[in-house]
Amino acid sequence: GAVYTGIMVYLAETARDGRRGLAASWAAANSEIGSLLAVGGGYLMSRLLTPADLDAWGWRVLFLAGAALAALMVPLRRLMDETTTFEEVRDNPADPGRSPLLTVLRSHPRAVVVAFLVSAAGSAAYFLNITNVPTYLETTADMPGTTSLWLGTVAAVVAIIVTPLFGLASDVVGRRPVFVVLAVVILVTTLPAYLLLAGGSGSAALVGGAFLAVPAAGWSAVAASAVPEQFTAVGRFSGMAVGYNIATVLFGGLSPFVATWLITVTGSVYAPAWYAVAVIIVTGVPALVLFRDRAHRPLAEINRDDLLGAPPVRSQ
């Protein structure tokens, strides 16, 4: 949600050097746990309640449960210490009279653009290829709601398992190589995966859902550390919040609606696949061109203003 960028920054700034990818990937994994609770909860409610009860009042149960969890997070957050990086910036502001947002927009425009592009590619892949799959199966493949929710639950579990593995891999070989592999996988496997989803078979849909979930989860995992590394300490959170959240709204939250509209306009049930491929080309490729791989640099170096404008670091 809205605090996701803050979680990425917090985990990246508290991680030890050499393991930022693994540590920050837990932000993505926890987001996927939220998706698992939502889809799994929907499956459970559909099994326990009649359709009439589910429509009348059952759908409210999960909303109330989510509200309770959100309320629980408030005291937990107040008990957490701030990061050392944040405290240093707060106690020694470079320009006390200037807003961090204005500072980052003036000093880190490239980083803000990278945050937007990386988030756009990842959000479209995640919302289309994980979040929207149960709805797609039910409305397009005529699959029963309980079955589609069950398959969505399995896909969410797969995403959670692979997420920290991709984060760790990016610590070892660098962020860029993992991003490139994931982009290629999304380009190559998205259409075949949707062919499996639209076939109507539960086993085929399970395989197709896994093909979609793994690279989408991997992109989110690597982005969780790669994007904070594009910014120096001053304005890191503000710059990420602007680029990341705008992209999430445009390419994440709106993607299922765009996919449904494309199916209606084109008459093709594979339109969402072409849309996902188009987004990864339009946003993912430029992101990889502008992106600076800083996986193997200490956070103390990244935080320094004199790192701005440094050439990209090529992974060994």
Report what the structure shows.
The protein contains 14 helices and no strands. The chain has a single domain (about 5-90, about 100-305), classed as Growth Hormone, Chain: A (Up-down Bundle). Mean pLDDT is about 85; it is low at about 305-315. It has about 325 residues and is mainly alpha-helical. It has helices at about 5-15, 20-50, 50-80, 85-90, 100-105, 110-130, 135-140, 145-175, 175-200, 200-225, 235-255, 255-265, 270-290, 300. This is MFS transporter. It is found in: Cell membrane. It is a multi-pass membrane protein. GO terms for molecular function: symporter activity.
Kindly provide the name of the CATH class. Mainly Alpha
Q: Helicity level, as a percent range?
A: over 70%
Count of extended strands: 0
User: How many separate helices?
Assistant: 14
> What is the CATH superfamily label?
MFS general substrate transporter like domains
Number of domains as seen in the coordinates: 1
Mean of pLDDT: 85
Distance between the termini: 35 Å
Uncertain segments are: 306-316
Q: How would you describe the shape?
A: globular
How can the largest sheet be summarized?
A: none
Radius of gyration: 20 Å
CATH third-tier fold name: Growth Hormone, Chain: A
> N-to-C SSE series?
HHHHHHHHHHHHHH
Secondary-structure arrangement, i.e. CATH architecture: Up-down Bundle
Going by helix content, strand content and strand pairing, the class is mainly alpha
How much beta, percentage-wise? under 5%
Transmembrane segments: 21-45, 57-76, 111-128, 148-166, 178-197, 203-227, 239-263, 269-291
Organism: Corynebacterium nuruki
Keywords: Cell membrane, Membrane, Symport, Transmembrane, Transmembrane helix, Transport
Pfam families: MFS_1
